[in-house]
Write a structure and sequence with these properties.
The chain is flat, with a radius of gyration of 20 Å. It has 79 residues and is mostly helical. The protein has a domain at 3-53. Helix content is 59%, strand content 0%. It is built from two helices and no strands. Helix 1 (3-22) runs antiparallel to helix 2. It has helices at 3-22, 27-53.
Length: 79
């Protein structure tokens, strides 16, 4: 995930939160509607940027490195 992917993800989450607060969403259905609206806002913004730059925002890369390798604890039979 690159910086732009994170930004558009945050935009969708922030838009969803604001819509849910403004509508005083309660329960699953009302929050689902707010989430769909917030996602559409971020989706439209992403598509607009992609059309202006001619470059895709979504990538296959991971934003963070994988977790560090861990040593397994010895099995009690190995002692």
């Amino acid at each position: 995930m690159n910086d732009l992917e994170l930004i558009f993800n945050m935009l969708g989450e922030a838009a969803t939160t604001e819509i849910a607060r403004k509508k005083d969403a309660r329960g699953f259905i009302e929050n689902k509607i707010a989430a769909n609206k917030g996602g559409r806002i971020a989706g439209k913004a992403r598509k607009e940027l992609e059309s202006q730059t001619g470059k895709r925002v979504v990538s296959r890369e991971n934003y963070l490195e994988g977790p560090p390798a861990r040593k397994a604890l010895p099995h009690k039979d190995d002692q």
